[in-house]
Amino acid sequence: MIQQFTKYGYSYDHAVSLSSTYGVFPVTNDSTNSTRAAAMPNDAYLESVEFEISSIASSAAKVTVYLARDSAGDVPITTTALAGSEQTITTGLATATDGAVVFTINKDYHYDSGVTATTPGTLYVVAKTDTGTCTANIRLNWRS
User: Using alpha carbons only, what angle is made at residue 104 by residues 56 and 71, rounded to the nearest 5 degrees?
Assistant: First the structure.
């Protein structure tokens, strides 16, 4: 029997600070800052990660990302060695300090309670800029 997706949505983190050092950001149900955000399902197909970027400073031009199961970023489920794990920021037409990057994931995910420092309903986006800083809202799009 073929399993079909019955739900789709995104998990969210608001106004994170990106710099040239990796940071670990929990994406989950942040309905205070994004009313349609939902908790990460325990079993899901991960489609993409969107960074809505503002306050670009000191020549930040690229973002590198991977996904991890744990809050330390020690148990990755994607890698920075894959093509597309680094993207150039597309800046806005009207505001040069605003922009976005989108990363395609296309991977199955299954929550594993045996992993230390993991939380049901949360997945962790690990990201950095090439140089400089910026602020980002992060959306992890999924189907389950």
Answer: 70
